[in-house]
Give the backbone structure.
Amino acid sequence: MPSGFLGAILSGVLYEKIIRPVIFATCPDAETAHERGMRALGLLNRHAPLARAVAARAVVRDARLERTVMGLRFPNPVGLAGGFDKNAVAPRAFEALGFGFIEIGTVTRHPQPGNPRPRVFRFPKDEAIVNRFGFNNDGAEIMACRLAATGPLGIPLGISLGKSKITPLEEAAEDYLFSLRALHDFGDYFAVNVSSPNTPNLRALQDGEALDALLLALVAETRARAAHGSTNATPKPIVVKVAPDLTLSALDEVLAVCAARGVAGIVATNTTLAREGLSRPTTEEGGLSGRPLTQRSREMVAHIAKHAPGLALIGVGGIMTPDDAARMLDAGAQLVQVYTGFVYRGPFFARDINRHLLQTAG
Ligand SMILES: Cc1cc2nc3c(=O)[nH]c(=O)nc-3n(C[C@H](O)[C@H](O)[C@H](O)COP(=O)(O)O)c2cc1C
């Protein structure tokens, strides 16, 4: 492997100055670019020697980066956020790129196509994305087969669970439970996605009673599984992903229900329905992510850290530079995740964040 060539590819500057502009120019549809990127990552996923060569340059190993959160050991605190690898086609590739954990999905009980295309829009000047995918995915059973074939990873694997579009809200718990049961053996933790703006009424599941019923069912299932498993097995952690559009008092209610029901942690935040931070107006519907979300997500993380110190906290939203990640951790998150920053900064963003964290750790 010519190290000069690989070294050049690994350079964030090359990505931002040449590769990204070429991708954006030749692929005006952001989803097509994503599909091409995922095909390349799928190749890396399947090609162990290539993955090892990339990992040798991208994985930052240092005891100061390690975290134990929710009883799980993370080699570093930088994760891939939900929605990037919706169908678990490239988990090993993300491990090779230096992520400390990945959250696959969001997966639903029923396979579903999502909303009509186009449904993803870039705002390069603002380092933002608007998407209204609507949980397009292959369904929980296919994902389980894929994960069985993949085998265990060296980093924690989170699985994000959502509600199928055809399932009425009143039957949501059964829908999530089906996916949890199908995927229980493969995930290290499960993220309950009740905060996507792109499935009609999904966010109503953040409301007190509905959330209570849903979490009661899911936590009971993980406890029952642990009780029937090997002796002293602890239940697999459930975390809840929240919207940045919640008022602080609504957020407090969510936190109270989570704590009461034995939820292990919170992922804050999903995309926003707000449109502040865009330099050109848009009528595209969907959730906004990236730079416009940085401050709001950080504020919510700080609020959760202060008011629910017993819950683990994964900070996500607008981490566009390594320093943004450091500030999210400073705000009280134990772990961080990136999505839009990975698109704008390139494949070695996790490595760059980890290096920065080590530099600032002294
Ligand atoms: C195109 C796109 C698709 C997404 N799909 C999902 C998803 O399926 N499940 C989920 O929990 N979050 C999803 N998200 C939200 C991200 O995981 C993340 O919470 C949000 O984008 C904020 O982080 P960021 O600013 O780093 O992108 C998606 C985000 C984007 C941009």
Observations:
- The mean pLDDT is 95.
- The domain at 3-361 is CATH 3.20.20.70 (TIM Barrel).
